[in-house]
Amino acid sequence: MASHVVVIATDLRRTTIKVNPGTYLADVLQQACKKLNLSSDRYLIKHRQKQVDLSIPFRTSGLIPGAKLELVLKSNTPSAIQVALQVPLPEGREIPGGRLIQKFPSDLTIWKVLRQFESGQASNGRNINITARGVAQTTSSSGSGGGQLYYEIPVLNIMGRELASFDDFQRTLSQLGYNSGSVLIRLAYRKTDQTLFDAMADIGRFFNEEEAPAAPEESEKETNKPAEETQDTPMVESQPDPVKESSRDQQPTEQEETPGSSVDQPPSEDAMAIDNSQPSNPLEPVSVFLAPSGTVPAAALAAVEEHDYTPSIAHAQIHQARLQEYSRNKRLLSDKELDDKAAAEAAKMAAIKSVLVKVRFPDNTSSDWQVSPSETGRFLYDAVRHVMANDDQPFHLVLPGTTTVIKNDDGPSNGLIKDYKISGRILVNLVWDNGVPPAVRKQPFLKSNVAQQGQQVKVPEPLVVSDDKGKGPALPTLQQTDKDEGSGDRIGKKIPKWLKLGKK
C-alpha cells in the first residue's frame, strides 16, 4: 500500500515523497534532496530528534504514514564502516568463516570496496578475482568448437537489497544508508550476455572517469615544480640527538660514495680521524664495552641531594596542565587523519640514514654497531656471531621492554629500521636458547681479541645547577614560595593548600 512522508530542509522548505513498504530510507533521502536541489551526500534524516537508519526499508523503520522527517547536515569527516564480505564457494573454503572483514570510509564506492577486497590487502594476502571474472561458452551445445569468454558480474545482497549493475556499484556506503556500525555483504556471481572484453571497456569508462581529469593537473604541477623542490619533499623532522651523534660515524661512508667532492678540497683533521676509527668490515663493532667491575650499578652510587626530591613550582604547573589536558574530551581520528599520520611516520622512518644499535650480552658486556636502512635482522645476528666466542650456540635478540624477537631472516619484511621501527640509539638484549649448556653460559661471551678492545662504561656526572646563593636548585621549591613570592626572577603565584607539603 502506497503512502508518503514529508521531508523538511534546513531552510524550512518541504517536499512530499511517496513510499511503499519496501522503499529504503536512503532512497527517500536521495529523492528529497533531488527535489530540493540539494546534495544527498551532505545530509542525514532525523525524526523527532532521533537519527533515522537509512539502510532499512520503510516497513521496518517504525515510521508512520505522513511522518515529518528533517534534513540535518552530516559531518564532513567520513566515518569508518566495518564491512564483512561473504565469499561464495569455492574461494570461501580458503577463508576462515568464509568472510573477509575490513574497515572502510563511508564515502568509498561499492566498486572500490570490492577492489580493496580482491587486492590482497583487505583479504589477508589472498588475491581474489571479483570484478573481472569470465566464463567460457562454446558455440555448440556439445561443448566443442570455438568459445568466447562472457563477463560474470558480481551480485551483492546487502540487507535484502540487490546490487548487480555498474550504476549500483558507483554508489557509496553512505548513499546506501551506512554511516556508522557494520554491514554484511553477500557476494554471488551472475553470467551476462556481454563479452569479457566489452565489459572491461565499460569498467574503464565507468570507474576511471573520475581519476582521468586529475592526471593532467597533477602532471602540470609536477612539470612546473622545480627540481630542487621535488628533491626536498621527502625531508621530515630531524632525528633525535643520538642519531646526530651517531652520524659522525656515517660521514666517511658518504665521502667515499662522492669522491668528486673531496678532490678540490682536502679532508680536515677531524674527517681523517673519523676515517681511521671507522671499521672497514660492517660486522666489526663500532665500540666494545666491558662488564661492570662492581656489584652495585654505577648510577646508584651517585650522590643525591635531599632537595632533588622536592617538587618545584614548575612541576606543579606541569601536573595541573596534564590534568586539564586529560579531562578534555577528544574526538577519535578519522581514517584520513590516521592515513596521514601513518604516512608521516613512514616518511620519518624513511629519512633515517643510520642508527646505533647496542647489543647487551649475558655477561653484561656490550657492543655497538652502525646499522643502515638496508640491513635486516640477519645482519645483526651475523655481527653478534662475529664477536662471540662460542659462535655455534643458539640465541635470540629481544627488543627492550617487549617480547618482540628479532628474526634471523634476510627477507625484505625483516628490516631493522623499517619493520622494527628502530630509530636513534637502542639497546637489544641477547638471550641464550634453552639448549645452551650451563658451562658455556659461564664462559666469557666475547672473543679474546675483541675483549681487548673493550672499554669501561663511563657514567656521566649529573649537571648541578645552583641558585645565586649556591644552595639548592635554581627552580623555586614549594618551601621557598612564601619568601620568594613577588620576586622578578621567580614565579610569583601563591601555592594552593593542597599542594603544600609538610606541617604548617
From TrEMBL:
Pfam families for the chain: TUG-UBL1
Residue span(s) of domain TUG ubiquitin-like: 8-71
Compositionally biased spans, kind Acidic residues: 211-220
Ranges of biased composition (kind: Basic and acidic residues): 481-492
Region annotation Disordered: where it falls in the sequence: 211-288, 450-495
InterPro entries named in the record: TUG-UBL1, Ubiquitin-like_domsf
GO cellular component: cytoplasm; nucleus; vesicle membrane
Polar residues composition bias: residue spans: 249-265
GO BP term (any one): intracellular protein transport
Protein name, as recorded: TUG ubiquitin-like domain-containing protein
Organism this protein belongs to: Cylindrodendrum hubeiense
